[in-house]
Design goal:
The structure is a homodimer.
Chain A: H1 3-15, E1 18-19, H2 20-30, H3 39-51, E2 55-60, E3 68-73, H4 75-90, H5 99-104, H6 111-134, H7 140-169
Helix pairs in contact in A: 1-4, 2-3, 6-7
The first copy, chain A, binds a DNA duplex (30 and 30 nucleotides) through helix 2 and helix 3.
Chain lengths: ~170, ~170
DNA sequence: TTCTGAATAGTCGGTATTGACTATTCGATT
DNA sequence: AATCGAATAGTCAATACCGACTATTCAGAA
């Protein structure tokens, strides 16, 4: 498993014991800007971490609900978490831009159509930025992620505007 | 397969017939900023596109070299390519920041250590920016990708400097 | 000419990831 | 008290993906 996903699960469990569903909910709600982790993948990875002895699972029932597996960090897991954390903080992990692939082939379409399509993209981007700016403030480091997202989207918007602008001045042929 | 990878392969074959190895070489050399596509994955996806009738493969030998599969777009593939291209250009695909996961759990380490680790990250980031700025200019839309990468890395560097700076002023406790 | 290292051109077994599905419970509504 | 939709808590078969490996050719050194 990639180190980011591993760090993510261990990190959340280090803050608080949780069961799989809860873990996935939290990630979807508050961390969608850094990872996309499907529910079934989360369960798969939790199983694997348990087999590696980094976390322990125990049954628990609440009210009439069917029993569920609650996970907690082992001492080995705690140590491993700290190592991954150090490694993550010290490394620059390049972000990928899947939207650039289209740009790379844009010459296959007539200029006015490219312009119209990029205007649509611009709107979507501006909306994402507005949504990020609307996010209510969070505590501690989650706030950091929101601010990062906003700074990034602002830079993206400025860049896209530059691209759209230059599109008009392109000499045909 | 994700639409980006599909668009990428069809797009390259639309510009020029190629064989698998060549395709992968090009992607590694010139498009590492938008995708990470392993060689074996490229072959797997080419097989799949062929099965879907979007590309055709034919044997070809050059000199004494063993024969190899050369791929070309079918008319269906060309049409599909244009649709994917329109969709890609019109959509904002959010980038992910795996480096943010560490930041989210930074409070697990003492402040001076976080500071030291982030300085290391900053160096790596600055180096990546310098490398991007050193890239010799390219023709057409590939130049666009390089400029995007530079703009992005500049924004990342400014943001990281802000984070490191605020770290010093944080009141402990 | 024989060896060695780099470039070319892939294949294959195993791991990671996910979409689609199951099943239970709860609260509200009829 | 029966029904319906949303929330909870997962499972599983199928796909996607990749690391490590194989095999050939070529250029240059010994």
């Amino acid at each position: 498993m990639s180190m980011e996903r591993e760090l993510l699960l261990l990190g959340l469990l280090q803050q608080q014991d949780m069961h799989g569903y809860q873990l996935h909910e939290f990630i979807e709600r508050y961390m969608q800007s850094c990872v996309d982790l499907k529910k079934s993948t989360a369960y798969y990875l939790l199983d694997k971490l348990a087999k590696e002895g980094l976390i322990l699972s125990s049954e628990e029932r609440e009210g009439n609900r069917p029993p569920r597996q609650v996970y907690k960090l082992t001492p080995a897991g705690q140590a491993h978490f700290l190592n991954l954390l150090r490694q993550n903080l010290a490394t620059h992990l390049p972000a990928r831009f899947p939207g650039d692939i289209g740009l790379a082939f844009a010459d296959s379409l007539p200029l006015p159509e490219i312009h119209a399509l990029l205007q649509t993209r611009r709107s979507a981007l501006a909306e994402a930025l507005a949504a990020a700016e609307q996010t209510p403030p969070h505590t501690g480091s989650l706030q950091l992620l929101i601010e990062h997202q906003i700074a990034h989207l602002q830079s993206e918007l400025a860049w896209l505007d530059g691209v759209i602008d230059r599109l008009g001045h392109t000499k045909p042929g």
